[in-house]
Amino acid sequence: MAVHExxxxxxAPAARTPNRGLRWLRRHLVTLAxxxxxxxxxxxxxxxxxxxxxxxxxxxxxxxxHFSTDAWRDPCGVADLCGSLGLSLQLALWATVGATVLGxxxxxxxxxxxxxxxxxxxxxxxxxxxxxxxxxxxxLATLFLNMGIxxxxxxxxxxxxxxxxxxxxxxxxxxxxxMDPRLxxxxxxxxxxxxxxxxxxxxxxxxPGIAAGALLSFALSFDDFIITNFNAGSTVTFPMFVxxxxxxxxxxxxxxxxxxxxxxxxxxxxxxQLAGNRRKRSKRS
Amino acid sequence: xxxxxTPQSSGGDVRLHGISKTYGSFTAVHPLDLTVPxxxxxxxxxxxxxxKTTTLRMIAGLEDPTTGTVELSGQDVTALPPYKRQVNxxxxxxxxxxxxxxxxxxxxxxxxxxxxxxxxQVEEMLDLVQLGxxxxxxPQQLSGGQQQRVAxxxxxxxxxxxxxxxxxxxALDLKLRRQMQLELKRIQTEVGITFVHVTHDQEEAMxxxxxxxxxxxxxxxxxxxxxxxxxxxxxxFVANFLGTSNLIEAEVVxxxxxxxxxxxxxxxxxxxxxxxxxxxRTGEKVLAGVRPEKVAxxxxxxxxxxxxxxxxxxxxxxxxxxxxxxxxYVVEVPGLGGELAVYEQNIERDGRLxxxxxxxxxxxxxxxxxxxxxxxxxxxxxxxxxxx
Amino acid sequence: xxPAITTSAPAPPDGPAGAExxxxxxxPVRKRLVPYWLLLPGILWLLVFFxxxxxxxxxxxxQTGSLEEGFKVTWHFATYWDALGEYWPQFVRSMAYxxxxxxxxxxxxxxxxxxxxxxxxxxxNVVMILVIxxxxxxxxxxxxxxxxxxxxxxxxxxxxxxxxxxDVTSWLGVTEGHRVLATPLAVVCGLTYNFLPFMVLxxxxxxxxxxxxxxxxAGDLYARPSTTFRRVTFPLSMPGVVAGxxxxxxxxxxxxINAELLGSTDQKMIGNxxxxxxxxxxxxxxxxALSFILMAxxxxxxxxxxxxxxxxxxx
Lengths: 285, 388, 315
Prior knowledge:
The complex is a heterotrimer of chains A (285), B (388) and C (315).
Chain A: H1 3-11, H2 20-27, H3 29-51, H4 70-73, H5 81-112, H6 118-126, H7 133-147, H8 153-177, H9 181-189, H10 194-223, H11 226-231, H12 238-248, H13 252-284
Chain B: E1 14-23, E2 26-36, E3 41-45, H1 52-60, E4 67-72, E5 75-76, E6 87-90, H2 102-112, H3 119-128, H4 144-156, E7 162-166, H5 174-191, E8 194-199, H6 202-208, E9 211-216, E10 219-224, H7 226-231, H8 236-241, E11 246-254, E12 259-264, E13 267-272, E14 285-290, E15 296-299, E16 311-322, E17 326-333, E18 338-345, E19 358-363, E20 369-372, H9 381-387
Parallel strand pairs in B: 3-8, 3-9, 6-7, 7-8
Antiparallel strand pairs in B: 1-2, 1-4, 4-5, 9-10, 11-12, 11-14, 12-13, 14-20, 15-19, 16-17, 16-19, 17-18
Helix pairs in contact in B: 2-4
Chain C: H1 29-32, H2 34-61, E1 63-66, E2 70-73, H3 78-119, H4 124-132, H5 139-149, H6 155-162, H7 165-172, H8 184-208, H9 212-220, H10 225-236, H11 238-254, H12 257-262, H13 270-281, H14 284-309
Antiparallel strand pairs in C: 1-2
Helix pairs in contact in C: 2-14, 3-4, 3-8, 3-11, 3-14, 8-11, 9-10, 11-14, 13-14
């Protein structure tokens, strides 16, 4: 890290100054502070990982007792844990599909057309992102209560699509706006019909934005607790299971699943990076 | 802070001693000694990646040299950070602060040195670059040429000993570039500050600078006044990069006198010994060079009227392009295995000089120069077009 | 950009007359409606499930009644005064905790964002992954991990005790005795941790956009590194600072998870009150009134803040 800094250091007439360590510290203060923050961000993940090998004495997995791989060998060994995980994955999947489709449509309308009530639409998109979750959660639950709608899978899904929508719109709109409109004109000039233009030019270029929005939706929905807590009734998603276990007793399997999610995600990102690097390298040669 | 504003705005000289820069295994600048005299307009000319910008940045203090020292007006400043050096830079693409207006951009350096009343100086400087009414605009509201002038004003207001210009006109269109070249030259003459100018445009370097250093592959190939470089290139790179040269492979058949006698193919060429930068003993190879505009062209039937003592080469016109002030010919010379370029002024046009015509090329031996044959004959030839 | 964009394409002739009459052709109505059709489902979703509930909640907040007999709108604004009178400590606490956490996020996050943007070099992607990776473990699990880290007998508390840091913090009133858990410090620490990435990412985005030549230009114009930071880097990163502080403050002010998991009853925030009023006490008017006050307070603060920081003026 900081390649230039180190070469600079070896160049500086350091031998003359007695407090060399102090100067080094001053020069690298920002880097050290940044790394400390990074440590603060990573520490809990490491703790979760280490404690997935714990064998706690009581119901709570807060203190280190013995090393054990029991939990890893039986990740679904706790009642309702894997059921809630499956439900959360299912919810996240459908919320992603719903929010991505609806959000992409809005984004295209905003980026490619002029129409009345444009600023109104923009405000309506912005507000859910600027609103504390607890306010949205309580008001939506009030609506469902007043309408006499049974809380459950569908109410959670409705809520998740609602708060994911804005994020998809923002991601896709940014991408479409930065796209040169002449590309579409060029496609039409080269005999592409409007539909072909959309499918062959517009959509492929917007794809990274759509993918980013979809990924964000999935993560937001999968990890949501506050809004789900208000609108789930007796349905238990994975975050709600964790919340409940904080009161009743935290099984080690929670750490196993948390660690597994972390590792899978990091591996996916690394694999993507490697593939990208290889593609770049093969392009260059 | 060690530096204080010097009241007079005369420039200082720059001395580089054995300065070099390496990044890992890549050497951007080979150990280099260079002196820029006070008050001169000095250009570092070269294609991209030749080390000219790195050299400039080492003078500015933005890059630490791997070896060597930088002296400004006799003071060693190698270890000084940029903010303690009395040099200022006009950056490529100007690097104007987007969050500050023009006035504050120009006042930036004065304010950093703790000068309280900047109003008069800033206004004078904005008038000098004819941007007085624009003072409260933001940089992005200005055109490229205006931004360029702000960048110059922002640097000059500090009365630096040396002003460094990193491709200052690169982002401008051709017409504006010509205009700004004259403008910068005028400002330099007016303020008398030493200018060190980095550019890839050989015309720009030759129009503006009193001294040009041609750089290639991290070394200075040749240094001198523009006309001197043009007339007496010392390497094939300089010969090809500055304008166009016809380089002919030849063998020395007679040496020792004031003129060397060369043999190229079947032809005999003469070359003043003083204009040959390579060692030239009998039997050795040299490259004989001549600029296209120095060569004249006669139809084969009139070969008898060629001035006695001129170098002559028989050939055939391969291509002719009329470009107004002159006509440019490509001539094939059998036995040399290459083509020569000839620029003829359009004074009296000979209707017989069309492609296919047999002709004789001739020029005064005094216009011939000699180069070491152990070089790439094509060096620098393509770079010029690429850069322009 | 307009729906008219499609007219530049060769449109099929409208009919036999279309080819002969050189009248100014208007965009077909069907095509002018395209943006509205694109907007319809998503906007409807937001209107029904986001905007309408807010209106519903507004009406709920001025209702009176009981669970058995049902609630009726009686324009009973006293609910607001009662709610404020009873829960103002939680309000103040929420704003204070969220404010402190936001400042801490900025102080901790700025060096990290700066590191990624300017100093990480070829390690940039690795550091970036390490910032985002924690997201992939459910944040509740990670928050529970802080219970382990800050546990009474744990190494962190041990070190803080032996350095007498906890004596100082207890004297300041942010911890109690020789422990960290169930104190304001623990809650703020959790809030800071949870929303730190929301500060780092926008900061990084705005820092990364700064042309490094601007730093060089400042140095060239006699600004020492600290001045360069104050006069150039920081002002140019203002959009990131504003976005980051908003993305941190708003969710932190409404959060109840950190207070619940890491605090005690003395650290309850307004989110905890709304949650328990709504889900346990079932006093819907009070929950609605509290939500509204929270929303209004945050919107007012955000508007004021954006005006003050003058981001519209920036690039």
